[in-house]
Amino acid sequence: MRRIVQLAVLSTVMVALLVGCGGGRGVAGRYVSQANSSDTLELERGGRYYWTMWGFSERGTYEIRGDRITLDAADGSSIRGTIRDGVIYFSANSVLGQYGNTEWVKQ
Protein backbone atom coordinates (compact mmCIF):
# COMPACT_ATOMS: atom_id res chain seq x y z
CA MET A 1 0.00 0.00 0.00
CA ARG A 2 2.83 2.37 0.85
CA ARG A 3 4.37 1.73 -2.58
CA ILE A 4 1.09 2.63 -4.32
CA VAL A 5 0.86 5.91 -2.40
CA GLN A 6 4.47 6.74 -3.30
CA LEU A 7 3.81 6.04 -6.99
CA ALA A 8 0.65 8.15 -6.91
CA VAL A 9 2.51 11.07 -5.34
CA LEU A 10 5.39 10.74 -7.80
CA SER A 11 2.97 10.63 -10.75
CA THR A 12 1.19 13.76 -9.53
CA VAL A 13 4.49 15.62 -9.13
CA MET A 14 5.66 14.58 -12.61
CA VAL A 15 2.44 15.75 -14.24
CA ALA A 16 2.65 19.08 -12.39
CA LEU A 17 6.23 19.56 -13.53
CA LEU A 18 5.39 18.77 -17.14
CA VAL A 19 2.46 21.16 -17.17
CA GLY A 20 4.29 23.89 -15.25
CA CYS A 21 7.47 23.74 -17.34
CA GLY A 22 5.77 23.56 -20.69
CA GLY A 23 6.74 27.11 -21.67
CA GLY A 24 3.22 27.78 -22.92
CA ARG A 25 3.40 25.18 -25.69
CA GLY A 26 -0.34 24.49 -25.48
CA VAL A 27 -1.18 28.14 -26.08
CA ALA A 28 1.29 28.77 -28.91
CA GLY A 29 -0.33 30.13 -32.05
CA ARG A 30 -1.85 33.21 -33.61
CA TYR A 31 -4.47 35.26 -31.77
CA VAL A 32 -6.60 37.95 -33.37
CA SER A 33 -8.30 40.87 -31.63
CA GLN A 34 -12.08 40.70 -31.64
CA ALA A 35 -12.17 44.49 -32.00
CA ASN A 36 -9.90 44.67 -35.07
CA SER A 37 -8.94 41.58 -37.07
CA SER A 38 -5.72 43.23 -38.33
CA ASP A 39 -4.38 43.32 -34.73
CA THR A 40 -2.56 40.06 -34.04
CA LEU A 41 -0.60 38.42 -31.24
CA GLU A 42 1.68 35.51 -32.10
CA LEU A 43 2.73 33.27 -29.20
CA GLU A 44 5.68 31.15 -30.28
CA ARG A 45 6.78 27.88 -28.75
CA GLY A 46 9.59 28.51 -26.32
CA GLY A 47 8.00 31.55 -24.68
CA ARG A 48 8.49 34.35 -27.23
CA TYR A 49 5.75 36.63 -28.59
CA TYR A 50 5.23 39.11 -31.42
CA TRP A 51 2.26 41.46 -31.67
CA THR A 52 1.12 44.00 -34.23
CA MET A 53 -1.49 46.61 -33.49
CA TRP A 54 -2.32 49.94 -35.19
CA GLY A 55 0.73 49.53 -37.43
CA PHE A 56 3.11 49.11 -34.49
CA SER A 57 4.81 45.89 -33.47
CA GLU A 58 6.70 44.51 -30.52
CA ARG A 59 8.62 41.40 -29.55
CA GLY A 60 9.24 39.94 -26.13
CA THR A 61 8.77 36.91 -23.96
CA TYR A 62 5.73 35.45 -22.27
CA GLU A 63 5.04 33.20 -19.34
CA ILE A 64 2.01 31.10 -18.50
CA ARG A 65 1.07 30.30 -14.89
CA GLY A 66 -2.24 28.54 -14.58
CA ASP A 67 -4.74 30.68 -16.49
CA ARG A 68 -2.56 33.81 -16.27
CA ILE A 69 -0.34 35.09 -19.08
CA THR A 70 2.34 37.75 -18.70
CA LEU A 71 3.95 39.42 -21.71
CA ASP A 72 7.34 40.98 -20.91
CA ALA A 73 8.58 43.59 -23.39
CA ALA A 74 12.21 44.43 -24.12
CA ASP A 75 11.79 47.81 -22.38
CA GLY A 76 10.93 46.08 -19.10
CA SER A 77 7.20 46.71 -19.20
CA SER A 78 4.71 43.88 -18.67
CA ILE A 79 1.16 43.17 -19.77
CA ARG A 80 -0.93 40.66 -17.84
CA GLY A 81 -4.01 38.82 -18.95
CA THR A 82 -6.08 35.69 -18.49
CA ILE A 83 -6.25 32.84 -20.99
CA ARG A 84 -9.19 30.43 -21.21
CA ASP A 85 -10.45 28.13 -23.95
CA GLY A 86 -8.34 29.70 -26.70
CA VAL A 87 -9.15 33.29 -25.75
CA ILE A 88 -6.81 35.77 -24.06
CA TYR A 89 -8.48 38.54 -22.05
CA PHE A 90 -6.54 41.73 -21.31
CA SER A 91 -7.80 44.46 -18.99
CA ALA A 92 -9.17 47.59 -20.63
CA ASN A 93 -6.34 49.72 -19.20
CA SER A 94 -3.52 47.68 -20.75
CA VAL A 95 -1.87 48.30 -24.14
CA LEU A 96 -3.53 45.24 -25.68
CA GLY A 97 -6.83 46.03 -23.95
CA GLN A 98 -7.31 49.61 -25.17
CA TYR A 99 -10.35 50.63 -27.19
CA GLY A 100 -12.13 47.36 -26.57
CA ASN A 101 -9.29 45.07 -27.67
CA THR A 102 -9.80 42.97 -24.58
CA GLU A 103 -10.47 39.60 -26.26
CA TRP A 104 -7.89 37.91 -28.49
CA VAL A 105 -9.09 34.64 -30.06
CA LYS A 106 -6.80 31.82 -31.19
CA GLN A 107 -7.03 31.10 -34.91
Subunit arrangement of the protein: single chain
What count of domains describes the coordinates?
Answer: 1
CATH class equals Mainly Beta
> What order do the helices and strands follow?
HEEEEEEEE
- Main β-sheet, spatial strand arrangement: 1-2-3-4-5-6-7-8
* Discrete helix count: 1
Fourth-level CATH superfamily: Uncharacterised protein family Atu4866
Proper CATH architecture: Beta Barrel
Query: Can you count the beta strands?
Result: 8
- Write down the CATH topology: Lipocalin
The poorly predicted ranges are 3-24
Class by SSE composition = alpha+beta
* Helix content bin: 10-25%
- Taken as a percent bin, the fraction of beta residues is 35-45%
Based on CA inertia axes, which overall geometry fits?
Answer: globular
Mean pLDDT: 80
Gyration radius, to the nearest Å? Answer: 17 Å
What is the terminal separation in angstroms? 47 Å
Q: Largest beta sheet, briefly?
A: 8 strands, antiparallel, barrel
Task: Reconstruct the topology from this structure.
Elements: H1 2-20, E1 29-33, E2 40-44, E3 48-53, E4 56-65, E5 68-73, E6 78-84, E7 87-90, E8 103-106
